[in-house]
Predict the structure.
Amino acid sequence: MASLRAWSLLLLSLSLAGTAAQAQSSGDMAPLDLIKGGGTPAAIGPNALQVIRAQPCPLVVSPQLPALQPLRIAPKDVAAKNRMGCLSPADAIYGTDGCPARLCSKTSGVVPLPSGRAAR
């Protein structure tokens, strides 16, 4: 019974594929030589978008370890971020331009772990 169902599904899909091929080859579709192109729109042309690179932030970490530099944030988010304080010692206090101004201290944002002794 399962093989009969599989065969009927196969025959149905083959007949549908043949029908689709016939519809595409018929004259319903416009010939490609009648499609008029307008060229490249000015919005995506070679001179449409001039990217101005943002100035990189000055390093607040050692020049030997630039990967540890905190990321720049949007200037509109600086006040809220600075109000939150330091989330970890690797976090920073930010300047108005969104660049990190200074790293947090080694004890900022550190949550003390419990001593490990069970309370009695």
